[in-house]
Write a structure and sequence with these properties.
8 strands; alpha+beta; three-stranded antiparallel sheet
């Protein structure tokens, strides 16, 4: 996504190095990272988060659309409240995963579903047929968000990330419903 994506309350944009403190409030928080797939260790400090962001920024340049990682920023105050991603699911051949992460004080405001719907709509302009989301069975917040985005539950599997996960899917025709 070469330009920012704007929704009613949010801007989905590329990560910047100066987002390190805001990103640390997401990826440096045990309440968030315990649910991530694949499993990710807690980012220890702002310098480490800046290194992670640098890697994401560099990788973004080589990812075919619609893959990537983006920051979720509130329009009202410009504050980064979360992140979104689209990446290949294992075995890394064709299934694309939509993922979202919000800092805990941003939970419950509908930001993930609003940003997710916007990103899904854009992604379907990029010649793809479907997107998946995976969630650990006990992650009721992620499961609820997937449903609010418009995704349909397709089953449970352990083929991704060596974890037992709930799988959700959305196709372009689901957006019209």
């Amino acid at each position: 996504m070469s330009e920012e994506l704007t929704t009613e309350r949010l801007v989905v944009r590329e990560w910047r190095l100066d987002d390190a403190a805001a990103a640390l409030a997401i990826y440096g928080t045990e309440k968030v990272i315990r649910w991530l797939t694949p499993a990710m260790g807690e980012v220890a400090d702002e310098a480490a988060m800046r290194s992670v962001l640098q890697a994401w920024i560099e990788a973004q340049q080589n990812m075919p659309s619609p893959r990537g990682r983006w920051a979720i920023e509130r329009r009202a105050d410009g504050e980064v409240v979360g992140g979104l991603g689209i990446r290949l699911l294992p075995p890394y051949k064709e299934d694309l995963e939509l993922s979202w992460q919000l800092r805990p004080d941003a939970w419950g405001h509908g930001y993930a579903s609003e940003a997710g719907r916007g990103l899904v709509s854009w992604a379907f302009t990029q010649e793809i047929d479907e997107l998946f989301a995976v969630a650990r069975p006990a992650n009721t917040r992620a499961i609820g968000t997937a449903k609010r985005i418009g995704m349909t539950w397709v089953g449970e599997t352990d083929k991704y990330y060596n974890l037992r996960l709930q799988v959700f899917r959305i196709r372009p025709s689901d957006l019209a419903e």
